[in-house]
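Section 5: illustrative case.
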């Protein structure tokens, strides 16, 4: 077990034991994610290429014989409890709404669950765009699945977690984050077709590090702007007479672009070409052409900045600082945008020098101290240990 994960494991298990006087029956870990390319395409039925990272949410839990769910967050320093028969949002302990939403959706979909005691901790940075919320949802669903022997495969788990976020938390996210947290595979990215929900494994190129640079800019507008982008895409699809923008090729888009109002046209142009960039990325990676892949990452960033308008000054500065450094194949913003992180593909031999240099350049340009994470591609959600019930 990697050392950061065993630290989380020990922290969760010892907190559980001191709260409940017995070890937990199960310990589950679900990873955060970083997306290599394919941004704002998932909710247009398109293509994405994320990796699950070695940053996790860990839940230590045991079942109860009533319908009460007791949650303790070691990182938020709070406690929240509810009954399965009466699930409402908790306005004070808002972190618990992800678990509440998952418990509600499990029941809505006919799964028979009982209560649980749970301790939650993790090292996915919160609010940085690395999908800590998807990791919490997927970990919670998997914990219930393990405790109550539910028939719930990984794709169904991802869909249920997404539904909790859409319908209970109120963020109309696509499927990418929950899917990769549930189905990620070590040393691989997944090229996900967000319509068929099938994936293709894409090996992380040998000798290359995935480095995430957190601008430390809080993603303030993200929820409202995100939902607004979704509506703009839906308008575009309606005007073009397709089920989703996934159904429009770049050539078709160019033929019909003039029919669209200016803003809709720019939003659609991003999505249509971004889908094509994901497909081109697969081809580039299959022939080991990292320069071509890096150029696609750069084009993705420019399109998110200029057409989709979800970047920000600090993200642009971080990407420009990275692109100028030795050993960098590609750099772009990742996730929803409006702050958060960039993703960089860097020669492993240059990873340490890159991290120091990009941090210094960014700090000098912005006055902010970034966080730099050299990430490994990890497996999706899993049980770390499970002891038989007494
Ligand atoms: C957020 C959402 C995802 C996806 C990305 C943008 O992470 O949760 O579903 O839309 O933004 O690619």
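Designed sequence:
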């Amino acid at each position: 077990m990697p050392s950061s994960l065993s630290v989380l494991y020990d922290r969760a298990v010892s907190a559980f034991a001191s709260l409940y006087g017995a070890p937990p029956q199960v310990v589950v870990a679900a990873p955060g994610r970083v997306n290599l390319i394919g941004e704002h395409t998932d909710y247009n039925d398109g293509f994405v290429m994320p990796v699950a990272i070695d940053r996790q949410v860990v839940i230590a839990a045991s079942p109860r014989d009533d319908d009460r769910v007791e949650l303790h967050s070691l990182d938020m320093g709070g406690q929240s409890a509810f009954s399965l028969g009466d699930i409402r949002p908790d306005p004070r302990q808002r972190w618990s709404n992800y678990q509440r939403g998952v418990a509600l959706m499990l029941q809505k979909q006919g799964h028979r669950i009982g209560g649980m005691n749970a301790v939650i901790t993790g090292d996915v940075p919160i609010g940085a765009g690395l999908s800590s919320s998807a990791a919490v949802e997927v970990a919670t669903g998997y914990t219930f699945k393990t405790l109550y022997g539910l028939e719930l495969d990984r794709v169904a788990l991802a869909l249920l977690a997404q539904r909790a976020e859409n319908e209970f938390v109120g963020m109309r996210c696509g499927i990418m984050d929950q899917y990769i947290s549930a189905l990620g595979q070590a040393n691989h990215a997944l090229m996900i077709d967000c319509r068929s929900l099938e994936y293709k494994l894409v090996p992380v190129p040998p000798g290359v590090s995935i480095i995430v640079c957190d601008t430390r800019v809080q993603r303030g507008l993200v929820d409202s702007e995100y939902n607004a982008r979704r509506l703009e895409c839906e308008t575009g699809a309606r005007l073009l007479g397709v089920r989703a923008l996934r159904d429009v090729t770049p050539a078709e888009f160019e033929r019909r672009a003039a029919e669209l109002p200016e803003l809709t046209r720019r939003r659609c142009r991003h999505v249509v070409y971004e889908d094509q960039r994901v497909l081109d990325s697969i081809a580039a990676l299959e022939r080991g052409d990292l320069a071509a892949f890096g150029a696609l990452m750069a084009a993705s960033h420019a399109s998110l900045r200029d057409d989709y308008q979800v970047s920000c000054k600090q993200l642009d500065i971080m990407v420009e600082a990275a692109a100028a450094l030795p050993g960098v194949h590609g750099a772009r913003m990742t996730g929803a945008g409006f702050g958060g992180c960039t993703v960089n593909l860097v020669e492993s031999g240059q990873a340490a020098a890159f991290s120091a240099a990009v941090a210094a350049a960014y700090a000098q340009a912005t006055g902010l101290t970034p966080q730099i994470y050299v990430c490994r591609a990890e497996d999706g959600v899993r049980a770390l240990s499970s002891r038989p019930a007494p």
